[in-house]
């Protein structure tokens, strides 16, 4: 089929829940995607921070191919070797004592919400309310859109589950003012990604940790987008020297294969008992070998160092563009998660960049989002900066 055939079939048979750009990808390799017409595009979005190792990384391909040849699914009624190995890797590299595997970020956050509620009801004498942040994003299920502090995601899906209240991100007084005798946990992204790539003050997460400790409530970090190397540390909480009680991961964790994980400290994880939570496909052998390949490759190829170096290099280049482009208002980010706030809507810039062979995304109506694979080099960074600059020049 050609591109128009696919577009017509997609519009006819698929629910129109996405505003899709008119491109059909044929294959990917490293930092690049190729469309049906074999045109090459430099990918600065990475499947929305998913493809940490780029496209078609041989380590992931080999791991999945080898596992698929042996066994793809058994269910969690039995022990899965690769799942045990990956849980050990995550525990030994983090604050956590136990891991629950699922299939997505929303599922991981659902699990975290359930675990926090179970802990609050059984250990904290019936506390079950969770404080989350305005402008946050935690998923598209009913519970996670309710935890998401943005009305645009909630409109039309009422009645929403109860038990959530919203504080202002990066404002410790706002959080403290909402804590009551019903509060069991505070849920936040260490860096708000979908909300505009909002980086908190250095002291904010430390203050949040101290506040939760003083009130004997849990601290939950949603690292679905900012975890697994995106900020230049394996986990974003390491940037702030703060350990949560619960953390969620997904996106980059499988390098393109669907997987999610909820990690918890010993005191919290223990309240989940047989039958409390489950996932038919969670932690399946294919997903687990992908996770193992991602974690091993990040370490072996020193991609955390590359993330820090290239993230700084990209931000410096963006600042140079900003100095001569009044369309750019502010540049924010950490590592290879970068937000460029514009004086205009982001969509025309995204479309113009796509025309010129660069894939970028948005994080809100007027913020460009850059989340390139961690394998990016300086030549590719320069190419992306040049395309962005020329696109902005044409639009202004």
Give structural notes.
The strands form three sheets. The chain has a seven-stranded mixed β-sheet with strand order 4-10-9-8-7-5-6, with helices on both faces. The protein is globular and about 60 Å long. It has 14 helices and 15 strands. The chain has 396 residues and is an alpha/beta fold. It has two domains: 3-57 and 302-395, Aspartate Aminotransferase, domain 1 (Alpha-Beta Complex); 71-300, Type I PLP-dependent aspartate aminotransferase-like (Major domain) (Aspartate Aminotransferase, domain 2, 3-Layer(aba) Sandwich).
Q: What's this, in brief?
A:
By secondary structure, the protein is α/β, with parallel strands linked by helices.
Largest sheet, in brief, is: 7 strands, mixed
Element-by-element helix/strand order: HEEEHHHEHEHHEHEHEEEHHHEEHEEEH
Helix content: 25-40%
The number of distinct structural domains comes to: 2
Note the total helix count: 14
Oligomer: single chain
Q: Can you tell me the CATH topology of the largest domain?
A: Aspartate Aminotransferase, domain 2
In terms of DSSP E residues, the strand content is 15-25%
Low-confidence stretches: none
Q: Helices and strands in order, then pairings?
A:
Elements: H1 3-13, E1 25-29, E2 32-35, E3 40-43, H2 46-49, H3 58-68, H4 81-92, E4 98-102, H5 105-122, E5 129-133, H6 142-147, H7 151-154, E6 164-167, H8 172-178, E7 183-188, H9 204-215, E8 218-222, E9 246-249, E10 260-264, H10 266-269, H11 285-300, H12 303-324, E11 328-334, E12 337-342, H13 347-355, E13 358-359, E14 361-362, E15 367-370, H14 378-395
Helix pairs in contact: 3-11, 4-11, 12-14, 13-14
């Amino acid at each position: 089929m050609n591109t128009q055939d696919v577009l017509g079939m997609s519009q006819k048979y698929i629910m129109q829940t996405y505003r899709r750009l008119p491109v059909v990808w044929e294959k990917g390799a490293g930092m690049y995607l190729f469309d049906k017409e074999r045109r090459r595009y430099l990918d600065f979005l990475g499947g929305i921070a998913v493809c940490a190792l780029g496209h078609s990384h041989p380590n992931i391909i080999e791991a999945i191919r080898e596992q698929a040849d042996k066994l793809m699914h058994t269910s969690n009624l039995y022990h899965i070797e690769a799942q045990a190995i990956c849980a050990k890797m995550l525990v030994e590299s983090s604050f956590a004592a136990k891991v629950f595997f699922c299939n997505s970020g929303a599922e991981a956050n659902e699990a975290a919400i359930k675990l926090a509620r179970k802990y609050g009801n059984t250990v904290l004498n019936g506390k079950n309310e969770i404080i989350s942040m305005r402008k946050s994003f935690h998923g598209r299920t009913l519970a996670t859109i309710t935890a998401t502090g943005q009305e645009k995601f909630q409109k039309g899906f009422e009645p929403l589950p109860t038990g959530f209240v919203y504080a202002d991100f990066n404002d410790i007084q706002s959080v403290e003012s909402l804590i009551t005798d019903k509060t069991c946990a505070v849920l936040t992204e260490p860096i708000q990604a979908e909300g505009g790539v909002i980086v908190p003050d250095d002291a904010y997460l430390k203050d949040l940790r101290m506040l939760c400790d003083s009130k004997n409530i849990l601290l939950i970090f949603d690292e679905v987008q900012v975890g697994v190397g995106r900020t230049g540390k394996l986990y974003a909480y390491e940037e702030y020297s703060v350990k949560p009680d619960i953390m969620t991961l997904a996106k980059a964790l499988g390098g393109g294969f669907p997987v999610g994980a909820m990690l918890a400290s010993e005191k919290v994880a223990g309240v989940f008992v047989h039958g409390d939570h489950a996932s038919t496909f969670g932690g399946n052998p294919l997903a687990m070998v992908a996770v193992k390949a991602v974690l091993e490759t990040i370490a072996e190829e020193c991609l955390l160092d590359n993330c820090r170096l290239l993230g700084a290099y990209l931000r410096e280049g963006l600042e140079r563009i900003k100095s001569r482009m009044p369309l750019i208002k502010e540049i924010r980010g950490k590592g290879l998660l970068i937000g460029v706030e514009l004086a205009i809507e982001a969509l025309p810039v995204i479309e113009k960049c796509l025309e010129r062979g660069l894939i970028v995304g948005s994080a809100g109506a007027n913020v460009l989002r850059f989340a390139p694979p961690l394998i990016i080099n300086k030549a590719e960074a320069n190419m992306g900066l040049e395309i962005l600059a020329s696109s902005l020049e044409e639009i202004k």
